[in-house]
Design brief:
It is a multi-pass membrane protein. GO terms for molecular function: transmembrane transporter activity. This protein is mainly α and 77 residues long. The protein has two domains: 1-44, no CATH class; 47-77, no CATH class. Helices cover 39% and strands 8% of the residues. It contains two helices and two strands; from the N terminus they run H-E-E-H. It has helices at residues 17-39, 70-76, and strands at 56-58, 64-66. A two-stranded antiparallel sheet has the order 1-2.
């Protein structure tokens, strides 16, 4: 797609797609560095718990302990 179809490459048989894509890429990178990184904050995350955690957990010794809050365990995961 971007490579020349004939060799040697001259101005008449040059595939200018690589020049156009390269120019757009350079412009977008420079625009991001100069301007957009100061105002773009990214997507906002809205997560919901897809499952309810049990208020208990089992330790390796086999004893069951009560957690203060199911969310306390979930926030540590």
């Amino acid at each position: 797609m971007f490579f020349p179809a004939e060799y040697p490459v001259t101005k008449d048989n040059m595939n200018y797609a690589v020049v156009i894509v390269g120019g757009i890429s350079i412009f977008a990178t420079v625009y991001w560095i100069v301007s957009a990184r100061h105002w773009f904050v990214g997507p906002k995350r809205t997560t919901k718990n897809s499952f309810q955690l049990s208020p208990t957990f089992i330790t390796t010794s086999g004893t069951t302990k009560i957690s203060p809050s199911p969310n306390a365990i979930h926030s540590q995961l």
